[in-house]
Amino acid sequence: MTMNNKMPKIYVAGHRGMVGSAIVRQLIANGHDPAQIVGRTHAELDLTDQAAVRAFFATEKPDQVYLAAAKVGGIHANNTYPAEFIYDNLMVQANVIDAAFRNGVKKLLFLGSSCIYPKLAPQPMPENALLTGFLEPTNEPYAVAKIAGIKICESYNRQYQKDHGIDYRSVMPTNLYGPGDNYHPENSHVIPALIRRFHEAKIAQAPTVSIWGSGKPYREFLFVDDMASASVHVMNLDKAIYDEHTSPMQSHINVGYGSDITILEVAHAIGSVVGYSGEIVFDSTKPDGAPRKLIDSGLLKRLGWQAKINIETGLKLAYADFLNQIR
């Protein structure tokens, strides 16, 4: 028997994105045969097209699926395109998970987002905070779609696990950054947006960089390769162990760094990495958002995984990636 026949055939949905490409890197680093990893670009396969997704699964017949494909963006993008954020994500998730089931995929991992938790959830946010309060209004459509993704996995498990042996799991990451990030000036998240802003200020020799808010809110950041490592870890957990620590009605697992820092600290760290020597000022007339967003990653730690890449190391790698992208 060849190596290819021994290894599961794995479909990584969103393999060109920040998280999907990191999962591919992690699988290969773990010794997985690249020939047994399947990916399709959006041009090759529109995941919102149910017929196309079903045809793809019927042809490729993967053994495992990492569902990392999603329409993502920062506050501005979520506010501007709420219809696309809820529709595209709901369609992608429903199409991929259902097609996986119809074509005999036994193991699937769905990647969500910490924005699924209520705006006023306890800090740090435990898994059981889900559906206990109102969501943050600015990204509610995206959050609702991600909650639906968790519940689709749970529902298929509840209905089909016993007779069909499927095992569909979900992980909820905190704020991610790193290679493959989106550095768009308007539609990106805080770290890539600040990396771009500080770099452009350095090039222009601007005397100051102004940042929205007071700088006081705390945020948790996780390097994307750590997220990929956690995803593969959770996918490969023994089912008895996974089931022991979750339930059919609450099966998702948080993935975080384990501690948070202020936006002020993040800004100064990025300024230092980029080499910006001007002054950093905060515009307190602009909104801060939630005072703190830290997830409780205690369950994943008990299951044998912990983040390794600290913010200083991660920011250096992220800035190197940004320089590669603009070249």
Automatic annotation (TrEMBL):
Q: Name one GO biological process term.
A: 'de novo' GDP-L-fucose biosynthetic process
A Pfam family recorded for this sequence = Epimerase
Example GO molecular function? isomerase activity
- Sites where the protein binds NADP(+): 14-20, 111-114, 146, 173-176, 189
Q: What is its EC number?
A: 1.1.1.271
What keywords are assigned to this protein? Isomerase, Multifunctional enzyme, NADP, Oxidoreductase
Q: Where is the NAD-dependent epimerase/dehydratase domain?
A: 10-240
Quote the record's binding site residues for substrate. Answer: 197, 212, 219, 288
What InterPro entries does this protein map onto? Epimerase_deHydtase, GDP_fucose/colitose_synth, NAD(P)-bd_dom_sf
Pathway connected to this protein: Nucleotide-sugar biosynthesis; GDP-L-fucose biosynthesis via de novo pathway; GDP-L-fucose from GDP-alpha-D-mannose: step 2/2
Q: Cite the position(s) of the site with description Important for catalytic activity.
A: 113, 115
Q: What's its catalytic activity?
A: GDP-beta-L-fucose + NADP(+) = GDP-4-dehydro-alpha-D-rhamnose + NADPH + H(+)
Record-linked CDD domains: GDP_FS_SDR_e
| Superkingdom, taxonomy of origin | Bacteria
Q: Which SUPFAM superfamilies match?
A: NAD(P)-binding Rossmann-fold domains
Active site at: 142
Q: What does this protein do?
A: Catalyzes the two-step NADP-dependent conversion of GDP-4-dehydro-6-deoxy-D-mannose to GDP-fucose, involving an epimerase and a reductase reaction.
Which HAMAP family does this UniProt record tie to the protein? Answer: GDP_fucose_synth
PANTHER family cross-referenced by the UniProt entry: GDP-L-FUCOSE SYNTHASE (PTHR43238:SF1)
In which family does this protein belong, per the annotation? Belongs to the NAD(P)-dependent epimerase/dehydratase family. Fucose synthase subfamily.
UniProt protein name: GDP-L-fucose synthase
Q: Which gene underlies this protein?
A: fcl
